[in-house]
Design brief:
By secondary structure, the protein is mainly alpha-helical. The chain is 66% helix and 6% strand. The protein has helices at 2-42, 59-78, 86-94, 102-118, 125-143, 149-165, 168-180, 185-205, 222-256, 261-278, 287-294, 300-319, 327-347, 354-370, 373-384, 387-407, 412-419, 428-435, 455-465, 485-491, 513-519, 544-563, and strands at 48-51, 54-57, 448-449, 469-473, 479-484, 507-508, 528-531, 538-542.
C-alpha cells in the first residue's frame, strides 16, 4: 500500500514538474518573441513619414498585413475550420467525451503568437491557457487513467497562468475557479506542483522577463478609497459588458459579410494597422500602454481614445480572424477605465488615487471578462506584493462581477459556449448525459420479421424466443414498423404489415442520453429500436432498464470526479 502511494506521489511530482517546465519555456518564449517583434517594428525607420503635426511609421500596417497573411496560410495549410481557445479548454474539463485536438491547440497558439508579434490588438494569456490545457490533454493520453482528464487539463492551465504572470497561487486558483469549477483533494497536489514548478522555472531561467505593470504609489486609507471603488465598479462592469458585446458582434458580423475569410483577416489587419500608426499603444499585448496609464502619463483625451481604440480594434481583430486572447486587452481596457476615473476625480480635488483606481479597475474588468474574480485579486496581490492593493481591487471586483453576471453572464468564455448550444450552468452531469450516445448501449437481443410474415407465425417465433415485440424490416434491414404479441393475435393468418405500428418510438444511434430519457418518459413497451442515422437501418434495441443503468453510471462517474 505504502509503495503504491509513494509511486503515485513520485509520478505526480514528475508530471507536474515537467508540465511546469514546458509551460515556463513556452510562455516566456511567446512573450520574449512578441517583445522582440515589437522592437523590430518600432525601429523600422525606413517606414517612417512626416506629417505637419508629427513623425509616424507605416510599420504597423506592413507588419500586420504580413501577420494576417501568415495566419491565413497557417489555417489553410493545416486545414483547420476554427481556432481554439479557453472556452474549448473549459468545455473539455466538463465533458470527458470532448478531447482537445493537439494539432488545433498548437496551431492556435502559433496563430496567436503571429498575430501579437505582428501588432494585432490581441492578448497572450488565453492562447497560452488553451495550449497548457492541450499539453495536459497530451499527458493524459500517455498516462491513460492515472488521473482524471480534467486534472491533467488543470495542471496545464495552472502552469500557463503561473508562468505568464509569475503568480503560482493565481495559477492554482484559476484552474479551479475558471476551468475545473470544482475542488477535489486528488486534483490539488498535481495542479499545485505544476503551477509552482512553472513559476520556479520562470524565475530561474527567465528572471529578466518584463512584468505586466509597475507601481510606485502607496494605497490611501481604505476609508477614503472604498466609496470611490464602489462608484467605479458599475462603470467597470459597463465597460466589460461593452467589450464582450463588441467581441461577439464583430464575430457575428464576420460570419454574415459576403467576403472570404482571407479578405476579412486582411481588412482587420489594415484597419488595425492604420489606427496603430497614430495610437501605437493599442498594438500587441499593450504592456507599455498599461504602465503609462497607471503612472498617469496620459491626459483625458488620450485615455478616452485609447479605451475606444483598444476595445474596437481587439473586437475587429478577433472577430475577423486575427486570432488571440482577450485577457491582456481586458487588462488594458480596465486600466484605461480606471485612469479616466482617476482623472475625473482629480478635477474634483481627489488626488493620489491614480494607481490604486487603475489597478482596481483593471482587476474588475478582467475578472468580469474571464469569470475569475478570486484569480484577478490574487494576480494583483502576487504582482504588487501589496495587501492593500489586493483588498482595494477585491472591492471593485466583487461589485463588478456581480453586476456583469446578472446582465451578461459568468464570463465571455461561457457566452462563447452558450452560442454553440453548450450551457455550463446545467452542470457537469447534464453535459455528460448530453455527450453520451444511445448507440453505446445497443443490444442485439431482439426479433425481426418480414412484412409478409403472418401474425400466427410471428407469434410462434416470439414464444420460442421469449419476446413480446418484434421489428418489421425490409430486405436492406431498414425499419418498417413494430409489432406486439397482441397485434399478432389480431392479425392471425394475415401479414403483420396490416397491424404493425408504422411510427414507433425510435432513437438515432447518435441520440444523447438526455434526449432519450425525455422521450421514454411516457413509453410503455419492451424495447426501443436504434437506427443508423444515415440509412435508417435497424442496428439494435435498447430497453428502459438499459437507459436507467446508463444514466446511473454517468451520475456516479461525475460524483466520483467531484469528490475524489
Amino acid at each position: 500500500m505504502s509503495g503504491r502511494v509513494f509511486k503515485e506521489l513520485l509520478l505526480i511530482l514528475v508530471i507536474g514538474s515537467f508540465i511546469g517546465l514546458l509551460m515556463a519555456v513556452i510562455a516566456n518564449q511567446f512573450v520574449l518573441g512578441v517583445q522582440f517583434a515589437k522592437e523590430v517594428r518600432e525601429s523600422s525607420q525606413w517606414l517612417e513619414f512626416n506629417l505637419p503635426w508629427g513623425r509616424y511609421s507605416l510599420a504597423p500596417v506592413v507588419f500586420l498585413t504580413g501577420a494576417a497573411l501568415a495566419v491565413v496560410w497557417l489555417r489553410k495549410l493545416l486545414r483547420l475550420t476554427a481556432w481554439a481557445g479557453p472556452a474549448d479548454s473549459i468545455y473539455a474539463a466538463h465533458a470527458p467525451h470532448h478531447e482537445l485536438n493537439l494539432k488545433q491547440g498548437a496551431a492556435s497558439t502559433l496563430a496567436a503568437f503571429i498575430s501579437a508579434a505582428g501588432g494585432a490588438s490581441v492578448g497572450q494569456y488565453g492562447p497560452l491557457v488553451h495550449f497548457g490545457a492541450t499539453v495536459g490533454s497530451g499527458f493524459r493520453r500517455v498516462f491513460k487513467d492515472f488521473l482524471s482528464p480534467d486534472i491533467f487539463l488543470g495542471c496545464g492551465v495552472a502552469a500557463a497562468i503561473a508562468a505568464g504572470f509569475n503568480a503560482p497561487l493565481a495559477g492554482v486558483v484559476f484552474a479551479h475557479e475558471a476551468v475545473l469549477r470544482h475542488f477535489s483533494p486528488r486534483a490539488i497536489a498535481p495542479i499545485f506542483i505544476a503551477s509552482v514548478s512553472a513559476s520556479t522555472f520562470d524565475s530561474l531561467f527567465f528572471s529578466a522577463t518584463e512584468k505586466t505593470f509597475s507601481l510606485q504609489q502607496a494605497v490611501p486609507p481604505l476609508a477614503e478609497v472604498v466609496p470611490v471603488l464602489l462608484l467605479l465598479a458599475p462603470f467597470a462592469s459597463l465597460v466589460a459588458i461593452s467589450f464582450m458585446l463588441a467581441l461577439r458582434s464583430t464575430t457575428a458580423l464576420g460570419k454574415r459579410l459576403p467576403m472570404p475569410a482571407t479578405s476579412l483577416t486582411l481588412l482587420a489587419a489594415v484597419i488595425c494597422g492604420c489606427v496603430g500608426v497614430f495610437m501605437p499603444q493599442i498594438l500587441g499585448i499593450g504592456v507599455d500602454g498599461i504602465n503609462m496609464m497607471i503612472a498617469g502619463e496620459a491626459d483625458l483625451s488620450l485615455l478616452l481614445a485609447l479605451l475606444l481604440g483598444k476595445l474596437t480594434m481587439t473586437a475587429l481583430c478577433i472577430g475577423f480572424g486575427l486570432f488571440g486572447g482577450v485577457f491582456s486587452p481586458a487588462l488594458f481596457v480596465g486600466v484605461a477605465t480606471g485612469a479616466i476615473a482617476a482623472q475625473v476625480l482629480a478635477s474634483f480635488g481627489l488626488v493620489g488615487m491614480q494607481e490604486v483606481i487603475s489597478v482596481a479597475a483593471m482587476a474588475a474588468v478582467s475578472a468580469a471578462v474571464i469569470g475569475a474574480p478570486i484569480t484577478s485579486v490574487l494576480i494583483v496581490l502576487e504582482l504588487t506584493g501589496s495587501y492593500e492593493f489586493a483588498v482595494a481591487a477585491m472591492i471593485a471586483v466583487i461589485v463588478c462581477t456581480l453586476l456583469t453576471n446578472r446582465l451578461f453572464g459568468q464570463s465571455f468564455f461561457d457566452r462563447q459556449l452558450l452560442d454553440r448550444g453548450i450551457d455550463l450552468r446545467k452542470g457537469r452531469e447534464s453535459l455528460a448525459l448530453d455527450g453520451t450516445r444511445v448507440g453505446d448501449y445497443i443490444s442485439a437481443h431482439f426479433l425481426t420479421a418480414a412484412a409478409s410474415m403472418s401474425g400466427q407465425r410471428l407469434m410462434q417465433a416470439m414464444a420460442e424466443g421469449g419476446f413480446t415485440e418484434a421489428y418489421v424490416v425490409d430486405p436492406e434491414g431498414r425499419l418498417q414498423g413494430k409489432v406486439s404479441v397482441f397485434d399478432c393475435a389480431q392479425a392471425t393468418d394475415k401479414p403483420v404489415s396490416s397491424c404493425m405500428d408504422v411510427n414507433p418510438l425510435r432513437f438515432s444511434e447518435t441520440e444523447s442520453l438526455t434526449n432519450a430519457m425525455h422521450k421514454v418518459s411516457r413509453f410503455v413497451g419492451e424495447s426501443i429500436p436504434i437506427l443508423a442515422e444515415d440509412s435508417g437501418r435497424l442496428l439494435g434495441v435498447v430497453t428502459e432498464g438499459d437507459l436507467f443503468q446508463a444514466v446511473l453510471k454517468v451520475q456516479d462517474s461525475v460524483r466520483q470526479l467531484e469528490r475524489n
